Amino acid sequence: MDGMNVPEIDAAAVPDDVYLLDVREPDEWQAGHAPAAVHIPLGTLQQRVDELPAGVPVYVVCRVGGRSAQATAWLNHIGREAVNVGGGMQSWAAAGRPMVAENGDSPYVA
Q: Which domain of life is it from (predicted)?
């Protein structure tokens, strides 16, 4: 990934009204995610990229930041505007940002 375009923002600094893309696996998503996030696992992103809005920045998050950095680099490579959420959902939770779980349990970062 050397030379790839991976702009990054701290989880605590992500604005509330952005398009937030969560690229974690389904079990991680179900355990806890940002309420407004859209879930597209990294493995299906290339097939589903047209589901993302054009012309607006996409903020990409995973568990700790590795998969989202890959997704951010790829999205920027194909001409989309993407920003990696540094530290992923672990930093999101640590910053006290809102989270919900799919099963009604208390949300946590799987």
A: Bacteria
Residue 89, Cβ density class (10 Å: 0-12 exposed, 13-18 middle, ≥19 buried): buried
Among the listed residues 23, 58, 60, 62, the single catalytic one is 62
Which residue from 7, 20, 97 is spatially nearest to 56, judged by alpha carbons?
20
Q: What is the mean pLDDT of residues 64-83?
A: 97
Which pTM value belongs to this model?
0.94
In this structure, which long-range contacts are made by residues 47-52, counting pairs with CB atoms below 8 Å and at least 24 apart in sequence?
49/75, 49/78, 49/80, 52/19, 52/21, 52/80
Looking at domain 8-94, what is its CATH homologous superfamily?
Rhodanese-like domain (3.40.250.10)
62: annotated active-site residue? yes
Q: Could you read off the pLDDT of 76-101 as tens digits, one per residue?
A: 999 999 999 999 999 999 999 999 99
